[in-house]
Specification:
The structure is a single chain. It contains 6 helices and 9 strands. By secondary structure, the protein is an alpha/beta fold. It has one domain: Rossmann fold, CATH 3.40.50.300. The strands form 2 sheets. A 5-stranded parallel sheet has the order 6-7-8-3-9, with helices on both faces. A 4-stranded antiparallel sheet has the order 2-1-4-5, covered by helices on one side. The two termini are about 30 Å apart.
Amino acid sequence: MLIAIENLDAGYNTPAGRQSVVKIGHLSIAQGEHTLLLGPSGSGKTTLLNVLSGLALPFSGKIVIDGTTLNALSAAERDKFRCQKIGLVMQRLHLISALNVGNNLLLTQRLAGMARDLNRVSAVLRALGIEHKAKKYPRTLSQGEAQRVAIARAVLNRPPIVLADEPTSALDDANCDTAIDLLFAQAHEHGATLVVATHDARIKHRFSRVHELVASK
C-alpha cells in the first residue's frame, strides 16, 4: 500500500485542550488509486489532508507513505518529503503573487531540489491548456485558470501522490467536471495516487472508492 493510516486521532489545539476532529482506525490506499474523502464541514477533511501531507502532526496514530512513517520525521524532513513525494492542491491556492505563472512552477522545482526544467514547465501548462499564461501573474487569472495553475504545480515534479482539498466546491457544474477531468488525467499520466477531500457530492459518482467522514460532535 502506498498510504496506510493506523489508529489516527487528529485535530487542533484550543485553549480548553485538544479538539479531535477526525479518527480513523485503518485506511489504506494503493498506488494509482483514486479515493474520495467525502464529508460535511467539520468532518476533518482538511485536517486529514494536512496530516497526510505532513503539514500537521496527528495527536496519535501512524501514517506510512511510500514506506516512510511520516509523523516520525522532523519538520524539516517532512518538508523535504512533501516537496519530493506529494503534490498539493489547496482550498486557497497560495500562488505567489509576485511571481508569474512560469516562475511559480519553477519555484516548485527548486523547493524539491530538482534542476530547473523549463521544458517540463511548458509541457505541463500545455497539457492543461494554459501555456499561453506562463508569463501572466496570478492576479490576472480567472478562477478556473488559477486552479489549473495549482493543478500544474501539484503534478509538476511527477509526485506519486496528489492531494486535493475542495477542488470543485466553488465551481459551477461544467467547471466542476473539468477540474476533476484534469486531476484524473494528470494523475493517470504519471501513475499517481489521487486523494480528493470535499463536501461536494456532485463528484461522488466519479470515484470508484469513497470514504465518508462524519462531523465530530
